[in-house]
Design goal:
mainly alpha; 4 strands; 60% helix
Length: 202
């Protein structure tokens, strides 16, 4: 805490830093503006560095969990954990593969990381949709464009694999129905579709 000399009003260090930054931006001096921009860049880099450290710590903890699961021979659970952590970019797939290789059971990555660039308007659109979903679910989470896309992919997955789902007609209205020629009934669940396998079994 810091107290001003004029009227003994108490300000936090953060508030004083904000005031200093505003004062610098208000200056017409080019040097002052460059200093303000430099301060902003330094703050952003510090935040990114802290986030990177947090991701690294989370990844190390996740890798330890995977190794513990492998020692208990819970291979399916370990694989699902690995899929989730690598999907979100928390864990290096090479480290997961090495952990599985030591057990003699290779790990086949079930997820791929896709990168998508969207406009700010579309990002806000996705965040707004997710905010509505959080309210309906009475969840305290933060609105996320990425989470909204995951929800849309889940709905797409249902419509793709289940002809009787409510999502299926919408997918057909968007993509047409020609893609159904590449599908076949799933042997394990007749009401589900799967991508038709080739003669080589792929």
């Amino acid at each position: 805490m810091t107290t001003s000399d004029s009227d003994d009003e108490t300000f936090t260090d953060h508030e004083l830093a904000q005031a200093d930054l505003r004062a610098l931006l208000a200056c017409t001096s080019g040097e002052a503006r460059r200093l303000a921009i430099d301060l902003g860049v330094r703050a952003r880099l510090l935040t990114e560095e802290q986030a990177a450290i947090a991701r690294q710590e989370e990844g190390e903890a996740g890798l330890k969990t995977i190794r513990d699961l492998l020692e208990l021979k819970l291979f399916d659970v370990a694989a699902a954990t690995a899929d989730a952590l690598t999907h979100h970019g928390t864990l290096d797939p090479a480290k997961v593969s090495a952990a599985f290789a030591s057990t003699g059971r290779p790990w086949f990555r079930h997820t791929e990381r896709l990168e998508l660039f969207v406009t700010e308007e579309r990002r806000k659109m996705l965040e707004t949709l997710h905010a509505g979903l959080l309210r309906r679910q009475q969840s305290q989470g933060c609105p996320s464009a990425t989470a909204a896309l995951r929800e849309l992919l889940d709905r797409l997955d249902d419509g793709f694999h289940r002809p009787g789902s409510w999502e299926h007609p919408y997918i057909v209205s968007v993509f047409g129905d020609d893609w159904l020629e590449f599908m076949e009934p799933s042997p394990s669940s007749p009401w589900r579709l799967q991508i038709r396998r080739t003669e080589g079994g792929q």
